[in-house]
Design goal:
- The chain is mainly beta.
- It has five domains: 43-142, Immunoglobulin-like, CATH 2.60.40; 145-244, Immunoglobulin-like; 246-401 and 411-439, Immunoglobulin-like, CATH 2.60.40; 441-536, Sandwich (Immunoglobulin-like), CATH 2.60.40.10; 538-645, Immunoglobulin-like, CATH 2.60.40.
- The protein is 6% helix and 54% strand.
- The chain has three helices and 56 strands.
- The strands form 14 sheets. Strands 1, 2, 5, 7 and 9 form a five-stranded mixed sheet that branches. Strands 20, 21, 24, 26 and 28 form a five-stranded mixed sheet that branches.
- Strand 34 (408-416) and strand 35 form a beta hairpin.
- The chain is rod-shaped.
- The relative contact order is 0.08.
- Keywords: Signal.
- This is DUF5979 domain-containing protein.
- Residues 48-142, 148-242, 256-338, 345-423, 444-547, 554-631 form the DUF5979 domain.
């Protein structure tokens, strides 16, 4: 019996690693000498060391703050409990725990205001296997988070346009020099910020966002442009106050009598129609008149309301008879020509329309009065007098030569003594040819090409364009809005020959990098293509696994499974083979910002014959903007404890003589 007990004891000690060299039990007689309590304690007890790690918002922290850790160890000789004080700089140690005892650890404090705490032990339950077993407690602190909500209002204009709001948030609890969180929201009625650290102070600013035809008067952010993030959403109201952009028109007068310049000596009136606005402008003794506060984009048309002069034939002409109001003042000139009535045939020319500048400067008329025939040239707004034969009841035929131009349509009406008529003109009558020139119009096309490694989900892209007039007085919009909701969009109607500069407005997408393409120039009838290149902001993650064993099993690998869902609800799954020697293995996938992942050890694959396996707890993480172009690292520990079926009965056999030694 003595020999068998001694052999068993030696085998246990060898298995427990208590001998420096292998020990072989022989068949010789061995006398069992009484063992001292110190020897038994050294041979059959072990201990463990508890170390502390602290991570705050994913970053390690060297914290002198002490943490309380309670332990419970259940041995066959009874239960042993206690409390340890540990910091990140000072570990705590427990000794004299019987080998093979199962222990469990619990952290009792460590809460921080404004943070959620997660406590993880690399081995919360474990068997005591030696004297220097190290257990690491990891406290992970994440800032509690909240959001702010923005409701946008528009005063003075009607539009469904999105508005950009920039924000910069500083977390006063961050003490490691981390800069502010800066980003923006696109508000279309309502928008909610991403989760932000509780207590963060956020400053909101709104860039000047123009609306065609309107000027931004002021921006109101209520209750104030600074918000403090709380547990409940913070409501902010953004009000953009717009006023209608207006322009003005200046009207000047020129007077010619018998083909010579003259100083205006009386007041005349000019009638105007600007959309739904009508009125009269008075030019006093040649001084210009101004029409003000006309909404931009309005088309105005003018009429000469001046009277005739006795003994003269009058013909008047506007250099721009129709204009479109812009923020730049439009200047027009009315020229009045008076020619003495000599009792002969008079031919006058008047040009109207929005393309007066495109019309010819002179017009040719063929005439025949009995045997008298000829051709005369008449300038727009002027009159030519032709002596006619003194034949009672004489009628002249007047024929106007073609005066069409490529960039405008022309419609001509004839008048005799102020009444619509044909080309038969009695002698001493006044013949007027009035031609209306209307610009031919067209559009240009703006196309959009999207290049993205992952679909962005964005479908609307705002542009503005500013045009140079094709001719003097031609309509040329400034900051005209254009939005592409598909692949292309067309401009409004513009006179042929108009050249415009097209600029894309802000079109960023959260979670993507994007640079605005350069402005492009285009002429009516042409097209331009803008390409937006979006690159997803991504990160990778890696796992470093340390295997803790009684016998070294660190040369093999353990599989970890990861299951991720990106912001587009696309599932990303895979398995990562991680060695047990603490070297990091990196998953190949590049995960977009906002991706949520769960990672766990494949416990079934990790089983080893003769060992009890303790897998690390599964963990989750979300890829943040701070992780872009980085590898997010995680440390895991897999624990193996040998299974020795005969150890408990043997320890029971040894317990009685050991206890007697302590009683002695």
């Amino acid at each position: 019996m003595t020999r068998g007990l001694q052999k068993t004891t030696i085998a246990i000690c060898a298995a427990l690693g208590l001998y420096a060299t292998p020990v072989t039990a022989t068949a010789q007689e061995i006398s069992l000498e009484p063992l001292s309590s110190d020897i038994i304690t050294n041979l059959l007890t072990g201990g463990f060391v508890v170390t502390q790690k602290v991570f705050v918002d994913g970053k390690p922290e060297a914290s002198p703050t002490p943490f309380k850790v309670r332990y419970t160890c259940k041995a066959i000789t009874g239960e042993q409990t206690g409390e340890l004080t540990v910091t990140t700089e000072t570990p705590a140690r427990v000794d004299n725990i019987p080998l093979g005892t199962e222990c469990e650890l619990f952290e009792q404090d460590g809460d921080r205001e404004g943070y959620t705490k997660t406590v993880g032990f690399d081995k919360q339950k474990f068997f005591v296997t030696d004297k220097n077993q190290v257990i690491t407690a990891t406290n992970t602190y994440a800032r509690e988070q909240g959001v702010f909500k923005i409701t946008s209002k528009i005063v003075g204009a009607e539009t469904g346009r999105k508005f950009r709001v920039d924000y910069s948030c500083i977390d006063p609890k961050v003490s490691n020099g981390q800069g502010p969180v800066t980003s923006f929201l696109e508000v279309d009625g309502e928008a909610t910020s991403p989760p932000l650290s509780l207590g963060s102070i956020c400053t909101l600013t709104v860039p000047n966002q123009q609306l065609p035809g309107y000027a931004l008067d002021k921006i109101d952010i209520e209750p104030k442009p600074e918000v403090v993030i709380g547990r409940e959403p913070i409501d902010v109201t953004l009000t953009n106050n717009y006023v209608r952009s207006t322009g003005s028109i200046s009207i000047a007068q020129k007077l010619q009598v018998d083909g010579k310049p003259a100083n205006p000596d009386a007041s005349i009136k000019v009638g105007y129609t600007c959309g739904g606005l009508t009125g009269e402008a008075e030019l006093k003794n040649g001084n210009p008149a101004r029409i003000e506060n006309i909404p931009t984009g309005t088309q105005c048309e003018f009429t000469d309301l001046g009277g005739d002069r006795a003994g003269y034939i009058k013909n008047s002409q506007f250099d721009k008879q129709k204009v479109t109001v812009t923020t730049k003042e439009q200047a027009i000139t009315l020229t009045e020509n008076y020619n003495r009535d000599a009792g002969s045939l008079t031919i006058s020319k008047r040009v109207t329309g929005n393309a007066v500048a495109l019309a010819p400067k002179t017009f040719k008329f063929d005439y025949q009065c009995a045997a008298q025939r000829g051709t005369v040239e008449v300038r727009a707004g002027e009159t030519v007098t032709i002596p006619t034969p003194a034949v009672p009841g004489l009628t002249c035929t007047v024929t106007e030569q073609d005066a069409q131009v490529p960039a405008a349509t022309m419609a001509t009406t004839y008048f005799v003594n102020g009444q619509p008529a044909g080309t038969q003109v009695p002698t001493n009558a006044k013949f007027l040819s009035s031609s209306d020139y209307t610009a031919r119009v067209g559009k240009f096309t703006v196309s959009k090409k999207i290049t993205a490694d992952i679909p962005t989900g964005r479908s609307d892209f705002p542009f503005t364009y500013t045009c140079q007039p094709a001719y003097d007085g031609a309509f040329a919009p400034v900051d005209q809005a254009l939005t592409i909701t598909g692949t292309s969009a067309e401009s409004i109607d513009l006179p042929l020959g108009t050249t415009c500069t097209v600029t894309e407005q802000d079109a960023p997408v959260a979670g993507y990098t994007w640079n605005a393409p350069a402005s492009q120039s285009v002429t009516v009838g042409g097209s331009v293509l803008f390409e937006n290149v979006y690159k997803r902001q991504t990160a990778q993650f890696g796992i470093a696994n340390t295997v803790r064993v009684w016998e070294p099993l660190r040369n093999g690998t353990i599989n970890f499974t990861y299951e991720c869902v990106d912001p587009a609800h696309t599932k990303i799954t895979g398995t990562l083979a991680v060695s047990g020697n603490g070297q990091q293995a990196i998953a190949p996938e590049k995960l977009p910002v906002g991706t949520l992942c769960t990672v766990y050890e494949n416990a079934q694959d990790a089983q080893r014959t003769g060992f009890r396996h303790y897998a690390p707890e599964a963990f989750t993480f979300t890829v943040g903007e701070k992780d872009v172009n980085k590898v997010i690292g995680f440390n895991q520990t897999s624990t193996y404890v040998p299974v020795v079926p005969f150890m408990v009965p043997v320890v029971r056999l040894l317990a009685a003589p050991i206890m007697r030694l302590f009683d002695a």
